[in-house]
Amino acid sequence: MKIGFLTSFGVLFKSGGGSDVNARNILLNLKDFDNVILFPLIDEILEKFEDICNNINKVKEIELPYSLYKICDSRKNYNYMEILNMLVEDAKNVDVFYDSTIRIHRKNISKNFLKYLLSKNIPCDDNLCVEGYWIAKLANKKIVIEHQEDIKSLNYGINFLINGLRYKIYNPFYGMENYLYFLKMSKIEKIIEDPLVKYYLFLSKGQYEHLKIKNNPKIKLLKYGNAFDKELLNYRTKNKENYIVFYARMHYHKGIYELPYIIKELKKYDKDIKLKIFGKFSIEKQKKDFFNLIKKFNLENNIEYLGFISEEEKYKIVSKAKVLLYPTHYDAFSLVILESLALGTPIISYNIPTVYYIYKDLPIVKFVKEFDIKSMAKEIYNILKLDDDKYFELIYNEKVNKFLEEHSNWKKVAEEIYNYLKN
């Protein structure tokens, strides 16, 4: 069986965030079960043409579609639909298609907002296209789609708008846009009902609990879904240091606008509280807003930004921290939380459904209501003031050990995907 695997070309070179880490490890393990051909994202081909073409001959362990070599050799300026049609021809040579994380091309959507909103059809044009689905459909191939992103509800969108305006978040309309984007414009529910879609896989029950078709038999909840490298367990230590930590993409999706407010509130309990932060800003306006808040609240001595650091340094810092502060608005099976579990550091997170359903039974992970700054600060302080015996009981217990054992094997993750592809 030959599997067409849609994901970023960059995963072969260890680029990207949690979803790309997931895709890379599934890809590299899936090829041990059967033949796999990597279909790069079309936007990536258009935007990173030189990088891809300069590295294409370095790829030895994974097969690439013929059209990608043709594009690089010709050096012609192809548009989105031209490349899609070329990939469709390659897809005719695979047996089944796998979209590793519901990749959706979007461009100038605002100009065509009403067109997509009012249409009953699943879109695919230069501005909006559910890429993997349409490549498989036009090639008349069955497809398994894994959804790694949140699908927000209308009520969530309204709540996020209210609180987003309150905290002057970069995009307070995010929740509403997500709801309209997935359910009303991209027609995800209609895609699930297409006979060519074999299965639609989710990482957390919280991703689909509000969908009208949540009981569709093609919707499956992955048992494993994500994994960590067992090497992380070697970084565990009982020699904890007096600081808390945050790491993720430095983006409003991950709660960076609330971080200064949380530390400001924490100072009421401990004026010397220290927060170490690392991660990369991708939007300059968000970076400016973040540091302006630190200055506004006089938190320069409480918050230390380390920038983008190596994996080894990351593991050392997280393992020695007392608590991971994680006010995320946008996640599924959070790799940040999973890594923190493996490194032996308790987590305080917002109770967004996607994260909550996965980690709710673990004593090492505590949840507070989204945007509840005071409760977040209080929960952090509650952990900080624990004596050593009670603190380490959160970390070293049967529930946590069992969870880590279940999620420390990428081969299991890939095998579960493979079983859905071949059935």
Quick structural overview:
The protein is of the alpha/beta class.
What does this structure look like?
Helices cover 43% and strands 14% of the residues. With 423 residues, it is α/β, with parallel strands linked by helices. The strands form 3 sheets. The chain has a 6-stranded parallel sheet, with helices on both faces. It has a 6-stranded parallel sheet with strand order 11-10-9-12-13-14, sandwiched between helices. 42% of the residues are buried. InterPro entries: Glyco_trans_1.
Give the strand order, joined by hyphens, for the main sheet: 2-1-3-6-7-8
**Derived structural class:** alpha/beta
Shape: globular
Radius of gyration: 22 Å
Descriptive tags:
43% helix; 14 strands; globular; alpha/beta
Produce the secondary structure layout.
Layout: E1 2-6, H1 18-30, E2 35-39, H2 42-47, H3 49-55, H4 66-74, H5 80-91, E3 96-99, E4 104-106, H6 113-118, E5 128-130, H7 131-138, E6 142-147, H8 154-166, H9 174-185, H10 188-193, E7 197-202, E8 219-221, E9 244-247, H11 259-266, E10 275-278, H12 284-296, E11 303-305, H13 311-320, E12 323-326, H14 335-343, E13 347-350, H15 353-359, E14 365-368, H16 373-384, H17 388-395, H18 398-406, H19 410-422
Helix pairs in contact: 1-19, 3-4, 4-5, 5-7, 8-9, 11-16
Pfam families: Glycos_transf_1
Protein name: D-inositol-3-phosphate glycosyltransferase
Keywords: Transferase
